[in-house]
């Protein structure tokens, strides 16, 4: 998947405009905001606020003690795939108290990226369960933090209890080429599933 530079104005009349919506989900402090900011061709929209004393007993910061901000609504970024075709990225908030927003954010989405940190793998269970229950295609992207132990994707799949369908990929959300590989994997996987579903009902 090649990402072209965005161009001002509307696409020509013979080029239908199309936007693909992708969600980026996962636990608190797993790298969702960084991922959107790394790949977005526009200045990403972030709704981050400083962590306060009120959140000490609400947000679990174990393993991410250095984190000082948190997303309270969403992150938004855009990528131009080609003229008239855009990829919109919506980063979801990771804390339990903001999960009510996921239903709204998931409307019309092609698929989702579930970011995982193997040091706190349990934090991505709710996102995996959410997308499985709604039948939304997703990939699990294991964010390889500095100093974190690298785990084989097969072991990660087993730990998550996945059925062997959803792709699992190792990534570094600070690197554009790595994020690009994750998104390419998701779009290919989700589009293939949509194609099979359409022909199954034909």
Describe this protein's structure.
The chain has 202 residues and is of the alpha/beta class. The chain has a single domain (18-196), classed as P-loop containing nucleotide triphosphate hydrolases (Rossmann fold, 3-Layer(aba) Sandwich), CATH 3.40.50.300. It contains 5 helices and 8 strands, in the order E-H-E-E-E-E-H-E-H-E-H-E-H. It has a 6-stranded mixed β-sheet with strand order 4-5-1-6-7-8, sandwiched between helices. Strands 2-3 form a two-stranded antiparallel ribbon. Strand 6 (111-116), helix 3 (125-134) and strand 7 form a beta-alpha-beta unit. The longest helix is centred in the C-terminal third of the chain and has 25 residues, at 176-200. The protein is globular, with a radius of gyration of 17 Å. The model is unreliable at 4-11 and 63-68 (pLDDT under 50).
Write the layout of secondary structure elements.
Elements: E1 18-26, H1 32-39, E2 48-50, E3 69-71, E4 75-82, E5 85-91, H2 102-106, E6 111-116, H3 125-134, E7 138-143, H4 153-160, E8 168-171, H5 176-200
Parallel strand pairs: 1-5, 1-6, 6-7, 7-8
Antiparallel strand pairs: 2-3, 4-5
Briefly summarize what is shown.
The chain is an alpha/beta fold and 202 residues long. Helix content is 28%, strand content 23%. A 6-stranded mixed β-sheet has the order 4-5-1-6-7-8, with helices on both faces. A two-stranded antiparallel sheet has the order 2-3.
């Amino acid at each position: 998947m090649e990402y072209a530079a965005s161009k001002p104005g509307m696409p020509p009349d013979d080029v239908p405009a199309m936007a693909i919506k992708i969600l980026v989900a996962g636990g608190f402090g797993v790298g969702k905001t960084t991922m959107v900011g790394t790949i977005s061709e526009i200045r990403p929209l972030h709704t981050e606020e400083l962590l306060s004393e009120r959140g000490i007993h609400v947000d679990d910061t174990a393993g991410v003690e250095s984190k000082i901000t948190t997303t309270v609504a969403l992150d938004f970024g855009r990528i131009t795939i080609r003229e008239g075709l855009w990829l919109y990225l919506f980063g979801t908030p990771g804390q339990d108290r903001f999960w009510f927003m996921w239903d709204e954010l998931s409307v019309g989405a092609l698929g989702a990226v579930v970011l995982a940190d193997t040091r706190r793998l349990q934090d991505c269970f709710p996102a995996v369960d959410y997308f499985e229950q709604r039948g939304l295609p997703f990939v699990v992207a294991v964010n390889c933090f500095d100093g974190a132990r690298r785990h084989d994707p097969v072991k990660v799949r087993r730990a998550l209890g996945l059925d062997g369908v959803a792709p699992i990929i190792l990534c570094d959300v600070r690197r554009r080429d790595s994020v690009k590989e994750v998104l390419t994997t998701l779009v290919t996987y989700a589009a293939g599933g949509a194609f099979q579903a359409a022909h199954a009902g034909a």
